[in-house]
Amino acid sequence: MPMYQVKPYHEGGAPLRVELPTCMYRLPNLHARTSSPASEAGHVQEASDPSLLALEARQDDILQRLYELKAAVDGLSKMIHTPDADVDVTNMPADEPTALITNALDLNSVLGKDYGALKDIVINANPASPPLSLLVLHRLLCERYRVLSAVHTHSSVRSVPENLLRCFGEQTRKQPRHEYQLGFTLIWKNVPKTQMKFSVQTMCPIEGEGNIARFLFSLFGQKHSAVSLTLIDSWIDIAILQLKEGSSKEQAAVFRSMNSALGKSPWLVGNELTVADVVLWSVLRQTGGCGPAAPTNVQRWLRSCENLAPFSNALKLLK
């Protein structure tokens, strides 16, 4: 006996016939613009969104401009004759840079115009690894410009040696602030890499001792050829990436390259001091690579550097 009774779903004894759909749902054919498949499917095609049409038109315009720009660049590349990439630049004669005491650079061209305010370069450095190259460049800048120098300690550092607090010497301001040409502020701070800003509110920091040294040395206004600039940048990269952070094999290769280059000229790039000499000397002193094991030409070059007052003053900070 059934538990409960249910009325029959269909009457009579005829079998139930259900028409199954051939597709889940119908959509208008977007590819047939001439016909109206939407009406055949029983749907009403909505008008295109104006914002999408505007976006599509903007994309087409950008692509067209890119094609025109690419054609212009291709045309210019055929007009410019570039030097052969296989040329060994180490055997090319380096140009003679201008002396550091002539042709004063207009600081506004590098640091920008800010009427009524002193152009102040702010550097954050870790006292555990003092950037000697920046201290050397500071001394050279003081010989070139009227520099207002200051040293501060950040709260992230518990204690700073007295010699680092006096790395700029006794700073006694003898004239009003607005009469100085450049401000140079060093902040001993617990940072992984040395940082620099000259526009504190509007620029991202420049990180790394080598990059900051490049910028500071540009304030001297020296002119170099493309070959010399390439050599200078190469030596700075070698100092940071291979000599300071590389393996013992890489460091040995750097000494061999330095010994070869210094056998041809008194300085690394030509007959005048460049930022490459400053950075390499700083890294050698920080890593302890100035011992008697250094090649002969490298030792002579080290003595030439330290005979200059900016280097000898910075060297005292390590004692």
Question: Topology, please?
Answer:
Elements lengths: L36 H4 L9 H30 L28 H4 L8 E6 L6 H13 L2 E7 L8 H4 L16 E7 L6 E3 L8 E2 L1 H10 L7 H19 L3 H15 L12 H13 L8 H11 L2 H7 L4
Parallel strand pairs: 1-3, 2-3
Antiparallel strand pairs: 1-4, 4-5
In short:
By secondary structure, the protein is of the alpha/beta class.
Written account of the structure:
The protein has 319 residues and is α/β, with parallel strands linked by helices. 41% of the residues lie in helices and 8% in strands. It is built from 11 helices and 5 strands, in the order αααβαβαβββαααααα. A hairpin with an 8-residue loop joins strand 4 and strand 5 (206-207). Helix 4 (132-144) packs antiparallel against helix 9, helix 7 runs parallel beside helix 9 (275-287) and helix 8 (248-262) packs across helix 10. The protein starts with 36 loop residues before the first helix and ends with a helix.
Notable characteristics:
alpha/beta; 8% strand; 11 helices; elongated; 319 residues; five-stranded mixed beta sheet; single chain; 41% helix
Strand content: 5-15%
The major β-sheet equals: 5 strands, mixed
Compute the CA-based radius of gyration. Answer: 35 Å
N-to-C span = 108 Å
The residue-averaged pLDDT reads 78
Q: What is the number of strand segments?
A: 5
Summing up helix and strand content along with how strands pair, one would put the structural category as alpha/beta
Which regions contain 5 or more consecutive residues with pLDDT less than 50?
37-45, 81-90, 97-104
Helix content: 40-55%
